[in-house]
Design brief:
Largest sheet: 4 strands, mixed
Number of domains: 2
Radius of gyration: 19 Å
Number of helices: 1
């Protein structure tokens, strides 16, 4: 029982560190600008990615792609936006 408690406490101490690490990873990937639009069905619902302008947007803008939900018939959305900081 004592070993189980030590294991639980050591794992409980790691959870905040892992969450902090994952939060940092999300922020980096959130502002990353992809070279091309991701393949169909690869984005989660409401997931946002930015893609280099392929000529369909004004100069200085990028394409903001927002994931849809196939099971509910919600398509992806595409918007031209200013380059994120």
């Amino acid at each position: 029982m004592e070993n189980a408690m030590k294991c639980f406490l050591s794992n409980a101490a790691l959870i905040p560190l892992v969450m902090l690490f994952l939060t940092g990873c999300q922020q980096d990937s959130r502002n990353k600008i992809l070279k091309k639009i991701p393949a169909k069905y690869t984005l989660s619902y409401k997931q946002i990615v930015y893609v280099e302008n392929d000529g369909s947007c004004d100069i200085g803008q990028v394409i903001k792609v927002i994931g849809g939900k196939r099971s509910k018939g919600i398509p992806r959305r595409y918007e031209c936006v200013s380059r994120p900081q």
